[in-house]
Design goal:
0% of the residues lie in helices and 33% in strands. The protein has strands at 87-92, 100-106, 110-118, 123-132, 135-141, 154-162, 165-173.
């Protein structure tokens, strides 16, 4: 919020200059992160990523930003490959005909409820209800209501209740 800038990595660059690891445990920041101490965590933050190596070209394979504060979380609290926060990533295909797969990620193991609703808000189908482990998941919906009848073409909403959060997305069924 105050516009504080810290350079995490500043090398001359080359194809052998890959960055792999976490700050500050495995990789040491180029500048001290102490400049961020005392910053108000509320407000709009900006993350700027730049390649200042000039003529080098390469591929950004993967990156993420993990911010922790006040929770006492450690690296042991995070599972490799699992999402940092629970999220509903979408359904495929969309639009769909006979069936579709709904994808989501769980940051914590727990109770999951996934349902489909029509445009009037009436629940059409309960796709999944039960415990699920941390990680990425895909659940298929066959386009049928709770009584096993195929639903009509149209717009539907699917809702994920998990990890104390509720997420809703829209999908289109075309027969």
């Amino acid at each position: 919020p105050k516009g504080t800038s810290v350079t995490l990595h500043n090398r001359s660059g080359s194809s052998a200059d890959d960055i792999v690891g976490w700050y500050p445990s495995v990789l040491t920041p180029d500048e001290s992160l102490d400049a961020l101490l005392g910053e108000d965590i509320s407000g709009s933050w900006s993350l700027n990523i730049s390649d200042n190596a000039g003529a080098d070209t390469g591929t950004l394979n993967q990156w993420c930003l993990r911010l922790t504060y006040g929770s006492g979380a450690t690296d042991a609290d995070f599972v490799a490959g699992a999402p940092i926060a629970t999220e509903l990533t979408g359904n495929r295909p969309n639009p769909f005909g006979a069936s579709t797969e709904i994808s989501f990620g769980l940051a914590r193991e727990g109770e999951v409820n996934l349902s489909v609703f029509d445009v009037s808000g009436r629940r059409v189908a309960k796709v999944f209800s039960g415990q699920m482990p941390i990680g990425w998941h895909r659940v298929a919906w066959d386009g049928r209501d709770g009584a096993g009848r195929p639903v009509a073409s149209g717009i539907y909403f699917y809702r994920l209740d998990a990890d104390g959060n509720t997420f809703t997305r829209k999908m289109l069924r075309l027969k």
